[in-house]
């Protein structure tokens, strides 16, 4: 069992402790093999408290997806153009998102959310809805908000970052996994910039003769 932070059942940190335990177990065992009883045991609380705070396991996952550890949380932040920063949005997105994965403190939560989110249709729907909601919010405030394809660009950017993160931090694919973080960013930012700023002519279906 992992070391505890000294919180007592019933105090203000109990909910966070339960969520932390759930995320660790989702990451280690997967969503399907994690039970409410196991979460309670890891958090050192009565299972009734898990039900009190989250109702059921799906409720725990829903809380995780809406927590700061979620992949979608980056898109809740204001992009550089909204705060007078001249950093390119591609650079800002890449660094802000990938630093979540670079930190061991938050990586387990990201891994857990992805593993659980892909486990079955219910969790996949929860994760999909959260990503879409947050990405649309970001598209509406980004430097590309006036473009008719702003949401498409935001979704393409997020899918690009998600794929790269899984390759580097979860699957540990060579050579991405061995790269220095700054070197990794140097490769990522230009490709992300292309998805955000390149003007593309829509492909039209060729009319039949």
Task: Explain what the structure shows.
The protein has nine helices and no strands. The protein is mostly helical and 209 residues long. It folds into two domains: 52 residues, Arc Repressor Mutant, subunit A (Orthogonal Bundle), CATH 1.10.10; 127 residues.
Provide tags for this entry.
single chain, mainly alpha, Arc Repressor Mutant, subunit A, 2 domains, 9 helices, TetR family transcriptional regulator, HTH_TetR, TetR_C_16, DNA-binding transcription factor activity, transcription cis-regulatory region binding
Question: How would you summarize what this structure contains?
Answer:
The chain contains 9 helices and no strands. It is mainly α and 209 residues long. The protein is globular and about 55 Å long.
The amount of beta strand, in percent, is under 5%
Structural class: mainly alpha
Specify Rg, calculated over alpha carbons: 19 Å
Largest sheet: none
Distance between the termini: 70 Å
Mean of all residue-level pLDDT scores: 82
Q: What general outline do the C-alpha atoms trace?
A: globular
Count all strands and give the number. 0
| Helical coverage, percent range | 55-70%
Point out poorly predicted stretches.
5-9
What are the secondary-structure elements, in order, as H or E? Answer: HHHHHHHHH
How many structural domains in the coordinates? Answer: 2
Alpha plus pi helix count: 9
Organism: Streptomyces sp. R41
Pfam families: TetR_C_16 (PF17920), TetR_N (PF00440)
DNA-binding region: 35-54
GO molecular function, one term: transcription cis-regulatory region binding
């Amino acid at each position: 069992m992992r070391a505890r932070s000294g919180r007592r059942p019933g105090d203000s940190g109990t909910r966070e402790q339960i969520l932390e335990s759930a995320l660790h177990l989702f990451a280690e065992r997967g969503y399907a093999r994690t039970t409410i009883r196991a979460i309670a045991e890891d958090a050192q609380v009565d299972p009734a408290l898990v039900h009190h705070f989250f109702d059921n396991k799906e409720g725990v996952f829903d809380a995780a997806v809406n927590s700061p550890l979620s992949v979608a949380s980056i898109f809740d932040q204001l992009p550089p153009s909204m705060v007078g920063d001249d950093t390119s949005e591609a650079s800002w997105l890449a660094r802000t998102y990938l630093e979540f994965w670079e930190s061991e403190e938050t990586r387990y939560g990201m891994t857990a959310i992805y593993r659980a989110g892909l486990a079955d249709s219910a969790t996949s729907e929860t994760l999909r809805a959260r990503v879409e909601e947050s990405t649309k919010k970001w598209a509406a405030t980004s430097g590309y908000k006036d473009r008719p394809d702003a949401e498409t660009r935001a979704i393409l950017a997020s899918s690009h970052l998600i794929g790269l993160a899984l390759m580097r931090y979860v699957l540990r694919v060579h050579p991405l996994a061995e790269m220095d973080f700054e070197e990794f960013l140097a490769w990522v930012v230009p490709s992300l910039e292309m998805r955000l700023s390149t003007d593309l002519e829509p492909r039209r279906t060729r009319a039949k003769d």
